Amino acid sequence: EAMEGSLLKLHSLEDLAGEPTAQSARLVPLLEIRERLLVVDGDSAERLQALSELLACIAEAEQPDGNPEAALGRFRRDAEIHERLRELSGDSSESLQALEHTLLRLRNAELAAEDHPAALTRLTRLVEIRERLLEVDGESVERLQSLGDLLVELGDAELQAGDQTSAVNHYRRALEIRERQLETAGETAESLH
After folding, report:
1. Long-range CB contacts (within 8 A, 24+) of 157-160
2. 140 phi, psi to nearest 5 deg
3. CA angle, corner 162, sides to 161 and 166, nearest 5?
4. What is the residue-wise DSSP string for 78-120?
5. Mean pLDDT on 112-140
6. Average pLDDT over residues 181-187
7. Helix (H, G, I), strand (E, B) or coil at 42
């Protein structure tokens, strides 16, 4: 843990100096230490959260730095950690929203890497998470809108992948969600768009 503290101080100084390549290079050993601590001490929510934050920081630095494959691997590991955090804390609104955010970043990285099958899988998982958020938080116009938009996006991706049947099913489902959204909001000009 002393080594971890020293690496964190070095990172803070480099952060102030604005050296992103040096920052991510210095954070990799810290990442390895945190991964080892997870193995040795077990996966507490605090350790997982610290590891997740570090992974996201390194991935964000690596992506524009010309290392998209490494960034993609780190985003994938971050998604695994958030799945584990959700298992530990249950389906709280906070854990589901954090997982959703992580999966969105991963999907964007997969699209940037032109890994369309993986991005399609991620969209499917995002729909599941948004449906679960509806159950946990209750229906709101915003949550229904978000789920409907994602179902349309999933249908579009499936159509592009040549799966018309699944696409039509998701478009129908999006229409059902839009109807629920209208019931929740009442018929206003804004809700009809």
Report:
1. 157/116, 157/119, 157/120, 157/123, 158/120, 160/116
2. -135, 160
3. 90
4. HHHHHHHHHHHH-S-HHHHHHHHHHHHHHHHHHHHTT-HHHHH
5. 94
6. 81
7. coil
Mean pLDDT over each residue of the chain, to the nearest integer: 84
| Predicted TM-score (pTM) of this structure | 0.79
Handedness of CA 109, 112, 118, 120 (dihedral sign): positive
Tokens of 129: 């998470």
pLDDT tier for residue 16 given thresholds of 50, 70 and 90: very low
Query: By the 8 A CB rule, do 100 and 133 touch?
Result: yes
> Is residue 189's pLDDT more than 70?
no
Q: How many other CB atoms are there within 10 angstroms of residue 101's CB atom?
A: 14
Tokens representing 46 are: 């605090």
Rounded Cα gap, residues 130 and 139, in angstroms: 11
pLDDT of 6 over the 90 cut: no
What pLDDT sits at residue 122? 95
3-class secondary structure, 24: helix
| Residue in the structure block whose two tokens are 């478009």 | 171
Six-digit token string for 3: 């080594």
Would you mind telling me the total number of residues written for the chain in this entry? 193
